[in-house]
Structures are given as structure tokens and as C-alpha cells.
Automatic annotation (TrEMBL):
Gene3D superfamilies hit by this protein: Nucleic acid-binding proteins, Winged helix-like DNA-binding domain superfamily/Winged helix DNA-binding domain
Domain Conserved virulence factor B first S1 as annotated: residue spans: 10-69, 76-132
Domain spans labelled Conserved virulence factor B-like winged helix: 225-280
Lineage: Bacteria, Pseudomonadati, Bacteroidota, Cytophagia, Cytophagales
Organism for this UniProt entry: Arcicella aurantiaca
Pfam families recorded: S1_2 (PF13509), WHD_CvfB (PF17783)
Name under which the protein is recorded: S1 motif domain-containing protein
InterPro entries according to UniProt: CvfB_fam, CvfB_S1_st, CvfB_WH, NA-bd_OB-fold, WH-like_DNA-bd_sf
Highest taxon in the source lineage: Bacteria
Family statement: Belongs to the CvfB family.
Length: 283
């Protein structure tokens, strides 16, 4: 993390000097004459006046600035996949790793948020109240200029919502795309970062994703996968071009289209023989 001398960054980590000690905690120099309390429970053992502490600064329930050495799951300016702890008439409260929960105003819910469920939100400072809040209306915080992205590019994905088409995912903490059902060959849990690839960038800027690399090297990997399984199965696999696509998907975690490409490649390489009842390893 990068720090500078001023100004104080609400909802961020700051490096602040200890200037006063009381029974219930320490006061830190928040710049411009502002003193910020860090409660005793969060003070590292042996801390002395004049030392600098790396602390996260937020507002308590009475809107007073408070510092803590606890690390929230995300800070202002970041997206996070967080669980709803409580629901009120004004909005919901999310667990973000601090004593005070993170508030999502009712007007910032994309759809009705339910207790116990997790959602992707963006954390920001409300200009009117100067409070740290979150929003599930992601579109206004996502980048729309995709000129820096390329098809086939490896990216960091944060899957966050299952849909009828597939799985919505945050791309490199900046963009949104979708992993279509036909591209999902393994379990993709929500809220966990994973590597993925940009399959297609559409003319409207929408992004299709894949959890497997596209192109010839991807098929080569599938060929190796099938051949290794063939050897482990005593030289025979009971799959043909008549095998149901769902069986291929369930057993081999690949589409039938990719299966046929890989088997065709193994056949041309002279590594397999294709019979009516399945695939045999060449002798």
C-alpha cells in the first residue's frame, strides 16, 4: 500500500502517528488537527507515542472517525463479494470484516438482497453523508473501455452470480463478463478468484469468458488429458462420436465439440484406434 502525508483517506489504510495515550486507547494524528481514536483492543502491544501505525480509518455508528488494525475484506474503491448480515427498511448490512457492518442503501440494491446470501458490491464514499457505503448496482462503477483487452488474454476472474446463461464474473477488478454454460467444465464457486481467458469481445463491448485457454494449445492439453486417462484405463475408453454430450461433459469435463477435436488429433497422431464401442490405445 502507498501512503502520503495528507490528506486523510477515509475507508483506506493510513500511516498515522501516535500522539496521545489514554486508558481506553490511543489517539492518532489524522492531519489538519484531527485526532483519531484507535481503541485499546486494536493497539499492537508495546506501541509508544511517536510511533506510526498502519490503520484502517472509518466512521463508527455515531459518525466519529475511528482507526483499527483489523483488515476489512475490501476498501473504498474496490469490489468485494460480501455476505448480508442483516436487513432493514432502509437497506442491508454486509459483513466486511469489521465491528461495524457495511451499509447498502435500499436504492443501491440491484435486486432485493436477502439475509445470509452473498453479493458483489462496490465500496465508495457517499458524497452527501460522507459515509462509507456499498452498491450492488455495478454498471456505474465498471469500466466500459475494453480497448486494453484482447481475445485470448489471461485474466483474473471473480465469479459472482449464476444466471440462466452461465456465470457473471468480474474481470481484473474492472470489467464484467460472462462464462457461458458451454464453457464451464468444472466447479466454479462464487466469490473465489480464479484464472480465466477472454474468449470473445463483442462489438457492443460485452465480454465472453472461458475458464480454459482457447486455441490449438488448449486442444493439445485435452489430447494429453484423454491419452493419460486412456493409459490409466488399460487402453480403452467407452466413448464414441455417438456418446451423449452430457456424458462427455460429466465424465471428461469438456464439450463434445472439443472431445471430437482432441480424439481426431490423437487419431491423426497414430496414438488411438477408433472402434464402434470406444477408443483403443494404438499398439
Amino acid at each position: 500500500m502507498v501512503y502520503d502525508d495528507a490528506p486523510l483517506r477515509l475507508g483506506q489504510f493510513n500511516k498515522l502517528e501516535v500522539i496521545k495515550e489514554l486508558d481506553f486507547g490511543l489517539y492518532l494524528d489524522g492531519y489538519d488537527g484531527e485526532e483519531i481514536l484507535i481503541p485499546r483492543v486494536y493497539v499492537p502491544e508495546g506501541t509508544q507515542i511517536g510511533q506510526f501505525l498502519d490503520v484502517f480509518v472509518y466512521r463508527d455508528s455515531e459518525d466519529r472517525l475511528i482507526a483499527t488494525t483489523l483488515k476489512p475484506y475490501a476498501v473504498v474503491g474496490e469490489f468485494a463479494y460480501l455476505k448480508v448480515k442483516d436487513v432493514s427498511k432502509l437497506g442491508v448490512f454486509l459483513d466486511w470484516g469489521l465491528m461495524k457492518d457495511l451499509f447498502v442503501p435500499f436504492g443501491e440494491q440491484h435486486s432485493k438482497m436477502a439475509s445470509g446470501r452473498s453479493y458483489l458490491v462496490y465500496i465508495y464514499i457517499d458524497e452527501q453523508t460522507e459515509r462509507i457505503v456499498a452498491s450492488a448496482k455495478l454498471d456505474k462503477f465498471l469500466e466500459t473501455d475494453v480497448t486494453n483487452l484482447n481475445e485470448g488474454q489471461e485474466v483474473d476472474l471473480l465469479p459472482y452470480e449464476y444466471t440462466d446463461l452461465g456465470i457473471k464474473a468480474l474481470i481484473d477488478k474492472r470489467y464484467m463478463g460472462i462464462i457461458y454454460k458451454s464453457e464451464v467444465f468444472k466447479s466454479v464457486p462464487l466469490g473465489e478468484f480464479t484464472k480465466g481467458f477472454i474468449k470473445k469481445i463483442r462489438t457492443d463491448g460485452k465480454i465472453d469468458l472461458s475458464v480454459v485457454k482457447q486455441g490449438f494449445d488448449r486442444i493439445d492439453n485435452l489430447k494429453s488429458q484423454i491419452y493419460s486417462l486412456l493409459i490409466a484405463s488399460n487402453g480403452f475408453l467407452p466413448y464414441t462420436d455417438k456418446t451423449d454430450a452430457e456424458v462427455i461433459y460429466k465424465d471428461l469435463q469438456m464439450s463434445k465439440k472439443d472431445f471430437k477435436k482432441a480424439i481426431g488429433g490423437l487419431y491423426r497422431d497414430g496414438k488411438v484406434n477408433l472402434q464402434m464401442d470406444g477408443i483403443y490405445k494404438s499398439k
